[in-house]
Structures are given as structure tokens and as C-alpha cells.
Amino acid sequence: MQKNSLPAFILGALICLGLALLGHSAADALLQMKAMERTVTVKGLAEREVKADLAIWPIRFTQVDNDLASLYDTVQQKTDRVVAFLKQEGFSEEEISLTLPAIEDRQAQGYVDPNVKYRYAARVSLSLYTNKVELLLKSRKDMVNLVKEGIAVSGQDYDSKPEFIFSGLNEVKPAMVQQATQNARQVAEKFAKDSDSRLGKIKHASQGQFAISDRDSSTPQIKQIRIVSTLTYYLND
Where are the domains of the chain? Predict the structure, then answer.
């Protein structure tokens, strides 16, 4: 029995040693995995101001009359005058779009408001689509000349305000993403330094969405582009 116990003892010792080494390796692996879980998440901001390169200008006016034929003649004359004004300002015919006027018969419902002087009202709409943004801004100021001719063009209504568009987002995207990423890294490096750590590789990155808005209500032709990128870095001792 003693002869058989020695090999069994040696085998048992080797097994115990192996288990001990395995446990130590597993512990080291767990510690390394735990260290890899140390991260910092930061946000990087990039902003830029640009000028709009496209504009859509709805031009509207209203004409009233008690005679339908006379109303159509007057509407046509004033519409032609507005188109001529735009061409004189420097816009091409291809940039100007016309729609049929909307005619309202105020007696069509059978009830006549005694305060309404004219039976028919025509709402006329034109649209200017152009990349001549600065010229459009100048023309809006010159529009007062049409008012002097009896064409009351709407200017302050929400539906009559020009819409300004910036179409070159793809051209500025790469530089702005780089700027936002660099900004985020600077924040992460500051955090790592303050926590006595070293900044590691990026674990996760989210570019975020580009947002384009007017710089302010007085200058809608100047746009502000903004992007916020979110990055998660590993922290090393």
C-alpha cells in the first residue's frame, strides 16, 4: 500500500499545483479585464458659421374687384409687373415660378357681409428660387417701388418670408468631424491626467447629427452648423 501511495501523492500534488497556477492565471486575466473596463466618455463640439447659398422667396399679393373679368386683367398686369421687376433686378426667367391665382367669391355661400366692399378676391403667388442670395436681399429692399405702383406685396407674413438654405454640408463635414474629435480628445486627456491615468484607445465613437440653424432672427441668411461627437476612451494606469 505504501508503494502505491507515493505516486498518488505526487499526482495529487501536481494536480493541486496545476489548479493553483490555473487560478492565478484566471485571476490575472480577470484583473486585466477589469482594467480594460476603466473608461471615460466625453463629448466634442464643433461649430461653424456659413452663408446660405440658396434661397426660396415666395412673393404674394392680393387683388379685389366686383367684376371677375376686370379682376383677371388687373391680376395679369400686376403679375407681369412683378416678373419684370425681378428681371430688372438681375434674376432670370428660369428662377421665377408662377402659379394660378386663387379666386375667392365672397358671395358663394349665400351670405353677404355688409362690411365687405368687394365680391371677388384674388390671391396671387410667385416664387423665386435662386443662388443669388445677396441680390435677393437687395431686391427685398427695392420692393418698395412696387408698392408705389399699387402692388401691395406681403413682406412680414410668415408665408412670405424667404427661406435660406446652405447646401454645402458635405464639403464642411470632414473638417468639422475632425474638430469635434480633437475637442473630445482634449477633454479626455485632461480627465486622464487629473485621475493619474493614461488615455488609451477609443472603445466607442458616435459622430452625432449635424444641426443647421439660423444664427439669429435678423440674419436668416447666415447659418450656424453644429455637431456633437461622443467618444469613449480606455484609461490605463
Answer: 1-37, 38-53+166-237, 54-165
pLDDT, tens digit, for every residue of 25-61?
A: 544 544 454 555 688 999 999 999 999 999 999 999 9
The pLDDT tens digits of the residues spanning 83-104 come to: 999 999 999 999 999 999 999 9
Report the topology of domain 38-53+166-237. Translation Initiation Factor IF3 (3.30.110)
Measured distance CA(97)–CA(76) in Å, rounded:
14
Counting residues of the chain whose pLDDT is more than 70, the rounded percentage is 80
Residues paired with residue 198 on neighbouring β-strands, in sequence order: 236
What integer pLDDT is reported at residue 27 of this predicted model? Answer: 45
**CATH class of the 54-165 domain in this structure:** alpha beta
Q: What is the pTM of this model?
A: 0.76
| Contact (Cβ atoms closer than 8 angstroms) between residue 48 and residue 225 | yes
Q: What angle do CA 68, 69, 74 make, to 5 degrees?
A: 95
How far is it between the farthest Cα atoms of the chain? 129
Cβ neighbours around 180 below 10 Å, total: 23
